[in-house]
Amino acid sequence: xxxxxxxxxxxxxxxxxxxxxxxxxxxxxxxxxxxxxxxxxxxxxxxxxxxxxxxxxxxxxxxxxxxxxxxxxxxxxxxxxxxxxxxxxxxxxxxxxxxxxxxxxxxxxxxxxxxxxxxxxxxxxxxxxxxxxxxxxxxxxxxxxxxxxxxxxxxxxxxxxxxxxxxxxxxxxxxxxxxxxxxxxxxxxxxxxxxxxxxxxxxxxxxxxxxxxxxxxxxxxxxxxxxxxxxxxxxxxxxxxxxxxxxxxxxxxxxxxxxxxxxxxxxxxxxxxxxxxxxx
Length: 280
Fold this sequence. Notes:
Blueprint: H1 2-21, E1 26-32, E2 35-40, E3 43-47, H2 67-75, E4 85-87, H3 98-107, E5 112-114, H4 117-124, E6 136-137, E7 146-151, E8 154-162, E9 170-178, E10 181-185, H5 193-197, E11 208-212, H6 214-217, H7 221-228, E12 233-236, H8 243-251, H9 255-258, E13 264-266, E14 273-276
Helix pairs in contact: 2-3
């Protein structure tokens, strides 16, 4: 009489094993503008999240993070309790604020900040910088070259390119590998195809690319489809009140265009969360 009981239990055990081995999804949390929090594999990364709506960018009061959200990030509340890396693409005020980043690093001794030489210079000018200096890194200081760092199992490629619009301002494009989930964040990179063709993209491909809406809605689509080839795209650098309009513009693209593009996500408010499945 024992055998039938064993046969009845085995399928349940198999299901439990499959569920327990399933990998958790990647969580992307919107901060503002080009700021995001990416969580996966027990690691948390901030990108362009440490800024606030201040002069000389008064128009970004509708695009910067709320003061309450900044407080949560700095205090380490909720998803920001343990941040491994804070990546800064460049020093413009709608991507980085030295005072905010300094306060954050003071409260997060576990975090290393990676940025450009301009970011390092802005932080080093603040009183008390020596206390955090060992955790501020500017790896790619020569225009046109890439550098690699590894921190707590996260691999980061930083490529120093010019800012878009012909501005000779250093901008890091980041290609990040978080335990097999690979994403790119372009910051405000120069939009010439050669800028992206020179990147060292992972052989396994990109799971996700954070890109300005120009790459989907204007002339940058070939960079997405022919060079980057990500599994998905999150559009950025829009004010929250413009998110619905941007989403509609994406939805209205003709099928001959959308059929060549990966899935496109437009987030519409701070702390909005979207999840992605990592490669199996």
